[in-house]
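Project standup — Tuesday

K.O.: blocked on the structure for the chain from last sprint. Re-posting the sequence here as requested.
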Amino acid sequence: MRRRLSVCFLLIALCGCIAGRYEPEDIGIKWQIPQRLEDYRELKRENYEVFREIDLDTLANILNEGKTCYLLLSYPDCENCQSAIDDIASYARKKNEAVYYLDLLACLADKESYERALSLLEPVLRTNAEGEKRIYTPELIEIRDGAFGRYFIGVGKEELKEMFGDR
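H.V.: unblocked you, prediction finished:
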């Protein structure tokens, strides 16, 4: 009898672990685990797997191919990014979503890359005091069917609840 109970408890525990696994939907794009995640001192190691690093070519493909995903514009030297990244990862994990990460330092590497980033992201950019479009961070963007949806700059818990709450 004890043996049967032990086996039942073991099966229940294993099923619970399998049901709670983090496996976001694969949207069929090229990505890699961001190498700079270790530079985010606020990000817990167990939340690394939420992020998939992409480049500007991959972002263009997401938009052109009508994909649906979340996109984070960030870089480790940004203090606001540091404070927001683990909350973003936690909310995404709870909803079993991946967050595609665009490291803005790579976009700033040269003028051509920066101008391409501005062009691709134009619908979700704000203007500065001089009327120029600029990328502000951290910015979390929802992309649905290749079009920009909701987006938040300076992401807090209320914005995360709104972003991840109804999908």
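K.O.: great, moving the ticket to review. Residues 107 and 113 are 5 Å apart (CA to CA). Residues 2-19 form the longest helix (18 residues).
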